[in-house]
């Protein structure tokens, strides 16, 4: 039985890895490990289909070490013993351990001495946060790297490579992928290259060639093989971005009906990850301090939608959209942090005042670090005037609350009161 396209197209060397250049690009950490042949165990975490297995395969291929794949949940201690015996006989083995967050203590205890000796280079793969889900003994012996969703350009490179590769890919089928079909393949799979290649292979192998022998892959074919409709078949392919943008602008403009219309279009396209991400942004960018309770409820609704999945997800999403659209609006937090970032990026920082510097080490007092710090909780109201900003930024204001709701008016009053007291206190 032929292996799936995604399996066949796994990179053979580190240079063939698509995306993840912050890890595998020339001069980056994993590339340096491979170049020096100084591999250490690592944990790769991130969404499905983003290249965790590909990176492991490429590391093994570039270093010429044996490569084995096991699953922490389903493979037994005996399977690990077989890998360990192979490592004893032939030298180092690169072991990709999928779902490493499900590794039990018995298997962990077996692995640890082999990791210490270097006979097994463990590459753990997980979609879970390793700092919360992986046993400390394994975590402490591994470097942790986050694998990011592939960009559209990365996805297109991998798709075209698979389409034209005659040895491992689909190059012998003489298939042509329409531009709008390729765009939908990238968009609908949301950075999951494995899903994209699966959809592409199904499309090519299930489509009859035309009279000239060419297999023509159109948008409707890709919609069927990835089971997600395009939002629109517009020529420039910006339809999905336009709908997402319209959803945010309708909520920002407090037009509930328009917001529900654009939400419905995204729901019909089955685009839960995009809806969730955009609503999270809206809750804090456009509502923010005007109504923190609504922002928090929206996040709860979004989390519920993600756990439910479609079709039920539409209900909490509708709740979130309606509340966000009808809520008072404020972008004061968003503009405040951007103003602070603008100063930092143009070099407007200055030294941290000595009394605020870390004093939890021997010799800090001799440097004057933390010596004159005044502890606010020792004063009435848990507040006392003292300088917090660097000298060159004293008196600088970033936060400019609009006061468009009772909540933000209260924040504005408190901000003004504290700012005035700080200024008067420092003048004394």
From TrEMBL:
<dbReference type="GO" id="GO:0016887">
    <property type="term" value="F:ATP hydrolysis activity"/>
</dbReference>
<dbReference type="GO" id="GO:0000731">
    <property type="term" value="P:DNA synthesis involved in DNA repair"/>
</dbReference>
<comment type="similarity">
    <text>Belongs to the AAA ATPase family. RarA/MGS1/WRNIP1 subfamily.</text>
</comment>
<protein>
    <recommendedName>
        <fullName>Replication-associated recombination protein A</fullName>
    </recommendedName>
</protein>
<dbReference type="InterPro" id="IPR008921">
    <property type="entry name" value="DNA_pol3_clamp-load_cplx_C"/>
</dbReference>
<dbReference type="InterPro" id="IPR003593">
    <property type="entry name" value="AAA+_ATPase"/>
</dbReference>
<dbReference type="GO" id="GO:0008047">
    <property type="term" value="F:enzyme activator activity"/>
</dbReference>
<dbReference type="InterPro" id="IPR051314">
    <property type="entry name" value="AAA_ATPase_RarA/MGS1/WRNIP1"/>
</dbReference>
<dbReference type="GO" id="GO:0005524">
    <property type="term" value="F:ATP binding"/>
</dbReference>
<dbReference type="InterPro" id="IPR027417">
    <property type="entry name" value="P-loop_NTPase"/>
</dbReference>
<feature type="domain" description="AAA+ ATPase">
    <location>
        <begin position="38"/>
        <end position="150"/>
    </location>
</feature>
<dbReference type="InterPro" id="IPR032423">
    <property type="entry name" value="AAA_assoc_2"/>
</dbReference>
<dbReference type="InterPro" id="IPR003959">
    <property type="entry name" value="ATPase_AAA_core"/>
</dbReference>
<keyword id="KW-0067">ATP-binding</keyword>
<dbReference type="Pfam" id="PF00004">
    <property type="entry name" value="AAA"/>
</dbReference>
<dbReference type="GO" id="GO:0003677">
    <property type="term" value="F:DNA binding"/>
</dbReference>
<dbReference type="InterPro" id="IPR021886">
    <property type="entry name" value="MgsA_C"/>
</dbReference>
<dbReference type="Pfam" id="PF16193">
    <property type="entry name" value="AAA_assoc_2"/>
</dbReference>
<dbReference type="Pfam" id="PF12002">
    <property type="entry name" value="MgsA_C"/>
</dbReference>
<keyword id="KW-0547">Nucleotide-binding</keyword>
<dbReference type="GO" id="GO:0017116">
    <property type="term" value="F:single-stranded DNA helicase activity"/>
</dbReference>
<dbReference type="GO" id="GO:0006261">
    <property type="term" value="P:DNA-templated DNA replication"/>
</dbReference>
């Amino acid at each position: 039985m032929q292996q799936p396209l995604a399996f066949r197209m796994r990179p053979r060397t580190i240079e063939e890895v698509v995306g993840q250049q912050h890890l595998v690009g020339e001069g980056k950490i994993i590339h340096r490990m491979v170049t020096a042949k100084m591999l250490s165990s690592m944990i790769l975490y991130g969404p499905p289909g983003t290249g965790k297995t590909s990176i492991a395969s490429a590391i093994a291929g570039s270093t010429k070490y044996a490569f084995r794949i096991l699953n922490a949940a389903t493979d037994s201690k005996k399977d690990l013993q077989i890998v360990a015996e192979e490592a004893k006989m032939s030298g180092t083995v690169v072991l990709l351990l999928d779902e490493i967050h499900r590794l039990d203590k018995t298997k962990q205890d077996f692995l640890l001495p082999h990791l210490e000796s270097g006979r097994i280079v463990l590459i753990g793969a997980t979609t879970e946060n390793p700092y919360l889900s992986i046993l400390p003994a394994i975590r402490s012996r591994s470097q942790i790297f986050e694998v990011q969703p592939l960009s559209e350009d990365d996805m297109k490179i991998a798709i075209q490579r698979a389409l034209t590769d005659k040895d491992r890919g689909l190059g012998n089928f003489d298939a042509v992928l329409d531009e709008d079909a390729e765009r939908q393949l990238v968009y609908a799979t949301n950075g999951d290259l494995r899903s994209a290649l699966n959809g592409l292979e199904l499309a090519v192998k299930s489509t009859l060639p035309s009279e000239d022998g060419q297999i023509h892959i159109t948008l409707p074919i890709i919609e069927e093989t990835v089971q997600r409709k395009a939002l629109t078949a517009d020529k420039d392919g910006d339809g999905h971005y336009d709908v997402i943008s319209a959803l945010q602008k309708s909520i920002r403009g407090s037009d509930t009906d328009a917001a529900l219309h654009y939400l419905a279009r995204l729901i019909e396209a089955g685009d839960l990850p995009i809806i969730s991400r955009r609503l999270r942004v809206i809750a804090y960018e456009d509502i923010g301090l005007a109504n923190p309770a609504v922002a928090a409820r929206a996040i709860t609704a979004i989390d519920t939608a993600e756990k439910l999945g479609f079709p039920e997800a539409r209900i909490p999403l509708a709740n979130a959209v309606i509340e966000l659209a009808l809520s008072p609006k404020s972008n004061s937090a968003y503009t405040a942090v951007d103003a602070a970032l603008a100063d930092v990026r143009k070099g407007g920082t200055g030294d941290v005042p000595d009394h605020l510097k870390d004093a939890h080490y021997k010799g800090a007092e001799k440097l004057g670090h933390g010596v004159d710090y005044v502890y606010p909780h020792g004063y009435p109201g848990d507040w006392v005037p003292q300088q917090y900003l660097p000298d060159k930024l004293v008196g600088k204001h970033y936060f400019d609350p609009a006061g468009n709701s009772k909540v933000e008016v209260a924040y504005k009053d408190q901000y003004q009161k504290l700012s005035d007291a700080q200024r008067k206190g420092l003048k004394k």
